[in-house]
């Protein structure tokens, strides 16, 4: 019970904001950082660690 009370006190002290405000801030953050998102922009071919290795054809 003591742990439960301590957890409830901790949760009660957390500052809360409205969902609409959190959504607006999250959307703004996503729009500001979209140019850095590799899923949206893509990864440059030279720095992609998952690209297929090239084989030597000089044999």
Automatic annotation (TrEMBL):
Q: Where in the cell is it found?
A: Cell membrane
Give the G protein gamma domain ranges: 1-59
Signal peptide residues are: none
Q: Name one GO cellular component term.
A: heterotrimeric G-protein complex
Name the InterPro entries on file. G-protein_gamma, G-protein_gamma-like_dom, GGL_sf
The entry assigns this protein to a family as follows: Belongs to the G protein gamma family.
Name of the featured protein: Guanine nucleotide-binding protein subunit gamma
Q: Which organism is it from?
A: Ictidomys tridecemlineatus (Thirteen-lined ground squirrel)
